[in-house]
């Protein structure tokens, strides 16, 4: 058994991961994207058509179409004569992703006074999830909770199209996080920041929450750019 075989065997079952969408290929793409967001698929992992087809009982043609969809989202890359792999982000990708996230998240937070109470509660629920993961020293689960926190921030805008795009952006962002060898050290300091952002939102202070988020994104980008620069320079 190869490392790729073992990795695919350890992926979640389909029923727990798939969401209803318009076609089988989109359904599979949604499943694989969710695996990237929750950390189950890491940069550089090869996706075997044969094993994925057998595990999830879908045709190879369906898988190939799903691969094409995710390649357009920069989550997968096809290497000639080698196969399909989960993408490896670069330092330039980090900078671009954070630029996009500022355009998506900050306006949603600044206008959070127009959001319904349930949307604000979803932000708090993601913070609660992260704190519970921290209490159990489950650092990858804390990273997944952080993804849900940022999904919930974007969802304050109340736009299904923005939600869909945000999922794509956060999937790429989760690939970026894999470069941080110590997920506890990276994610833990931001959890208290998440709580402050939610507290400001719950108190009806969206401008304060947006200021906290802007500083948060600046700090996170700087930390990741530093790590990627060192990695790309071989240091």
From TrEMBL:
| Gene3D superfamilies hit by this protein | GntR ligand-binding domain-like, Winged helix-like DNA-binding domain superfamily/Winged helix DNA-binding domain
Indicate the secretion signal residues. Answer: none
The alphabetical list of record keywords is: DNA-binding, Transcription, Transcription regulation
| Database matches in Pfam families | FCD (PF07729), GntR (PF00392)
Q: Where is the HTH gntR-type domain?
A: 22-89
Alphabetical list of InterPro entries matching this protein: GntR_C, TF_FadR/GntR_C, Tscrpt_reg_HTH_GntR, WH-like_DNA-bd_sf, WH_DNA-bd_sf
**Entry-linked SMART domains:** FCD, HTH_GNTR
What GO molecular-function term can you cite, just one?
DNA binding
PANTHER family hit by this protein: GNTR FAMILY REGULATORY PROTEIN, TRANSCRIPTIONAL REGULATOR, GNTR FAMILY
Name of the protein this chain belongs to: DNA-binding GntR family transcriptional regulator
Q: Which organism is it from?
A: Nocardiopsis aegyptia
Q: What is the lineage of its organism?
A: Bacteria, Bacillati, Actinomycetota, Actinomycetes, Streptosporangiales
């Amino acid at each position: 058994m190869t490392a790729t075989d073992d990795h695919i065997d350890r992926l979640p079952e389909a029923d727990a991961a798939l969401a209803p969408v318009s076609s089988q290929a989109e359904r599979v793409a949604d499943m694989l994207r969710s695996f990237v967001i929750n950390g189950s698929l890491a940069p550089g992992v090869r996706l075997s058509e044969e094993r994925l087809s057998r595990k999830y009982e879908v045709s190879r043609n369906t898988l190939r179409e799903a691969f094409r969809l995710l390649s357009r989202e920069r989550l997968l890359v096809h290497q000639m004569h080698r196969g399909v792999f989960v993408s490896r982000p670069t330092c330039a990708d980090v900078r671009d992703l954070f630029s996009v996230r500022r355009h998506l998240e900050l306006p949603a937070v600044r206008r959070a006074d127009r959001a319904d109470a349930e949307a604000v509660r979803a932000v708090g629920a993601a913070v609660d999830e992260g704190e519970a993961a921290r209490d159990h020293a489950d650092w990858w689960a804390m990273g997944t909770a952080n993804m849900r926190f940022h999904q919930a921030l974007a969802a304050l805008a109340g736009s299904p199209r923005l939600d869909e795009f945000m999922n794509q952006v956060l999937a790429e962002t989760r690939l970026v996080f894999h470069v941080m060898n110590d997920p506890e050290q990276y994610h833990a300091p931001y959890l208290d920041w998440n709580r402050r952002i939610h507290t400001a939102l719950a108190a009806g202070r969206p401008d304060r929450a947006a200021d906290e988020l802007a500083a948060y994104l600046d700090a996170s980008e700087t930390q990741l750019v530093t790590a990627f620069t060192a990695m790309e320079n071989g240091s």
